[in-house]
Amino acid sequence: MMRRTGLIAHTVSHQARAFTLVELLVVIAIIAVLIGFLLPAVQKVREAANRASCGNNLRQMSTACLNFEANYGFFPSSVKDTGPQRSWAVQFLPWIEQGNLARRYHFDKHWCAPENADAVGTQLRVFSCPSSPSRFRTASGEASVKLTDASGKTTTLKFLFERAACTDYAVVDEVKDDPYFAGLVDVRGYGVLREDQFTRVLDVTDGTSNTIMITECGGRPQWWVRGKLISEDKTFNSAPWASRGNDFGLDGFDMNDFEAPAGACAVNCSNSNEVYSFHPGGAQCAFADGSVRFVNQNVTTRTLARLVTRNGGEVINWADY
């Protein structure tokens, strides 16, 4: 009996065998195919989460702007150029739960003054889109400040700034002359937030739900064109969230001539003073009614201009963008 059992065990051990090379390669190929199917799904889920987070940032900023208007009776200016220079974002600080940072900021000094270096170097998640290739960036360079004395004489001072925290959002304050004279837009005009002006809700005659207030302008100070990195620091002066240059006028971009003063390409073409995001298919914009909407990257400069002007009288169809 013992011999028979040993024989059976010996036979079973001879039947067990390892994978052949061909079988191993087949298993590896199957796993690779499964990963190939899985990765796009994971990327889509990640991008959906990033887009939701970015939209929430814009929603916080638009709500802050509306609360500002409800408190003072007017919207903040896009930038403050007379007196101490600063951006719209500096004015928002107390309204986006950044009261402590606002107290560290010297409002009697220019944003680029040494006294404000600590405050403007503070990274804020609300000013950063998670889809940007490098989320928390800084910019260094030279800022120009114009001073006008009582006699009307203007002088320009230069301030060096280092490691100022950047933002992925900006204000579109107007539709510029160049696209108008090139026939790319219907009218010229101002946006909701304007330099050294304080717009009221009654001034937005095109309707708050039809007028963009804040938009994505991601990736600065790097210069990006259609997802391709062109330069490391072209937009350094407009990149910091506190910078006076953190607003721009719409002129569109010409994909055939990067130096052209205007172009028909309006969204996700260039982040040098244009609407730009790293979301596939378009960019998110906060409107003057507090809503956040995704604007298709195929819209023309003409269509986007209709959404920028606050009193242009243009007809807007949601299907157009």
Structural class: alpha+beta
Strand tally, please?
12
Treating each run of at least 4 consecutive H or I residues as one helix, how many helices?
A: 7
The CA-CA distance between the termini, in Å, is 86 Å
Provide the residue-averaged pLDDT.
88
Globally, the shape reads globular
Low-confidence stretches: 1-13
Biggest sheet, in brief? Answer: 6 strands, mixed
What proportion of the residues is helical, as a percent range?
25-40%
InterPro entries: DUF1559, N_methyl_site, Pilin-like, Pre_pil_HX9DG_C
Protein name: DUF1559 domain-containing protein
Keywords: Membrane, Transmembrane, Transmembrane helix
Transmembrane segments: 21-42
Describe the SSE topology:
Layout: H1 2-15, H2 21-72, E1 79-80, E2 86-87, H3 88-92, H4 99-104, H5 117-120, E3 138-148, E4 154-165, E5 169-175, H6 177-181, E6 189-190, E7 212-216, E8 223-225, E9 228-231, E10 247-250, E11 282-287, E12 292-296, H7 301-308
Parallel strand pairs: 5-10
Antiparallel strand pairs: 1-2, 3-4, 5-6, 5-7, 7-11, 8-9, 11-12
